[in-house]
Amino acid sequence: MNANERIAALVSLGERLSQPDEFLEALMQRTQYNNAWFTIENQKLALGAIVQHFLQKDKLENWAAAYRLRPEGPGKTVGMVMAGNIPLVGFHDLVCTFVAGHKAQIKLSEKDQYLLPYLLKLLKEIAPGSEQYFEIVEKLQGFDAVIATGSNNTARYFEAYFGKYPHIIRRNRNAVAVLTGRETADELKELGKDIFRFFGLGCRNVSKLFLPTDYDFNALLETLHEYRDLVLHDKYKNNFDYNLALVMLNRTPYYNNGCVILQENPQTASRIAMVHYEYYDSEKEVHEKIAATREEIQCVVGNSEQLSLPDTGLVPFGKSQEPGLADYPDGVDVMRFMESLN
Fold first, then answer.
1. For a FRET experiment, which of 23, 95, 200, 296 has its CA 20 to 30 Å from that of 172?
2. What one-character-per-residue DSSP string does 43-86 give?
3. Domain residue ranges in the chain
């Protein structure tokens, strides 16, 4: 398959996924049974974002035009260790590998075993030649390069095991949001999506807020309470109850609106059902704090009309979980990495 054929196949996959599919619905049920965090709603959100942002003809062509693509493939074999924190989280890496003209050798996460194989099956039906670009395996072997995503702990093992190969190894990251106190109710509600979508398990979920020193929490807590149905989910509720008990026993100051706990804490990463916050006196101060922890931050959410934070690439409220093709995790251009393998 040449580059145009590969892009056309992805566009056709997006069209196929936009149509009703009873088998896909059944797979979503099976996935939810296997991993309760992957609710039907969250799986549909993930699929919808993939179709809208990764599988549109104009977006694919404009994005791919900036890179040197293999005219025919597959070229090198890229081993992929998939994460399992949110549904189909590694799909962007597959799109990059396929469009670039290389082969993906995929080690699935046990938390997300069913959706991706079905999407690859659909792609094979659409374009039989695509089959040679993908291989799902129990153990990576015979690969030329690696993309591995995991925790800070597993990343150390990845470095030791894959360090001799060309590689991209990803660690824990989270999003942060910078508020000014002038946000509208609609903006705060959109911020709720950035915090709560996928139960806060994604690397682009907001886990920490930067707030002006005189910030009034009332509007924020009231608006975020609109997401209170989250506590009807057993796993989320268990985490909420446990973390609430911890802050109460430790007599740590906190805010609680019944579905999320806000705690002053300088750390970027927070527990499930918790969001950290840190005060700032000036934009210069918050910019310096973000720069100092840039290796922990996936993206920064805020209103670019109210804030001047150079080089942070502010993401609008409600859009942190809708990255585009050029929004590479950890800021590492996967397509340039693919070019280097040619």
1. 95
2. HHHHHHHHHHHHS-HHHHHHHHTTS---SS---SEEEEE---SS
3. 3-171, 174-301
How many residues are given for the chain?
Answer: 342
174-301 maps to CATH 3.40.309.10: yes
How far apart CA 263 and CA 209 sit, in angstroms, is 10
CA distance 221 to 198: 20
Residues 6+ apart with CB under 8 A from 320: 175, 193, 194, 204, 205, 206, 299, 301
**Residue closest to 176 by CA, chosen among 196, 195, 162:** 195
CA angle 334, 154, 265 (to 5 degrees): 90
Q: Per-residue pLDDT for the chain (342 aa), expressed as one digit of tens each?
A: 999 999 999 999 999 999 999 999 999 999 999 999 999 999 999 999 999 999 999 999 999 999 999 998 799 999 999 999 999 999 999 999 999 999 999 999 999 999 999 999 999 999 999 999 999 999 999 999 999 998 888 999 999 999 999 999 999 999 999 999 999 999 999 999 999 999 999 999 999 999 999 999 999 999 999 999 999 999 999 999 999 999 999 999 999 999 999 999 999 999 999 999 999 999 999 999 999 999 999 999 999 999 888 888 899 999 999 999 999 999 999 999 999 998
CA 150 to chain centre: 12
User: Would you give the DSSP letter of residue 181?
Assistant: S
DSSP of 214-236, one letter per residue? T---HHHHHHHGGGGGGGGSHHH
Chain centroid, CA 215 distance in Å: 29
What pTM value is reported for the model?
0.95
Pick the CATH number of 3-171 from 3.40.50.10740, 3.40.605.10, 3.40.50.150, 3.30.420.40: 3.40.605.10
Largest CA distance in the chain: 63
Structure tokens at 254: 């906190």
How many CB atoms sit inside 10 A of residue 58's CB?
Answer: 8
CB 210 within 8 A of CB 286: yes
Tokens 């959410």, located at residue = 301
